[in-house]
Amino acid sequence: xxxxxxxxxxxxxxxxxxxxxxxxxxxxxxTETKNFEAKGNPYKNxxxxxxxxxxxxxxxxxxxxxxxxxxxxNAFQVLSEGKVKTYKAKDDMTIKEAVEAxxxxxxxxxxxxxxxxxxxxxxxxxxxxxx
Length: 131
What we know:
The protein is an alpha/beta fold and 131 residues long. It has helices at residues 50-60, 73-81, 95-103, 116-122; strands at residues 2-7, 25-30, 36-40, 65-68, 85-88, 108-109.
């Protein structure tokens, strides 16, 4: 199984990035081979729909599971429609810890996204309403 994880860096010791759509990097971890691939997020500085674009990356890479800190409403909807289960990493968790916790069933599965208002509080500098 492949797991899509938002990351602050390019290796398994990096921290899980709490931002889904505007994460610095994303890591695709293969639980069978224990190999992983890290890539910079090409949508990080996009004007709009970044969550949707990053969600599409998870779906296109055939990842049935995503791990991040927070999911915006649009990203969450796309992931749900793509049958990707969304899990919340605890603050200050490394990629490796998050993957292990997920495989042990210790991560909280997210059933609903943060609202636009909540997202505004969490990431005030990232949301632009005057586009």
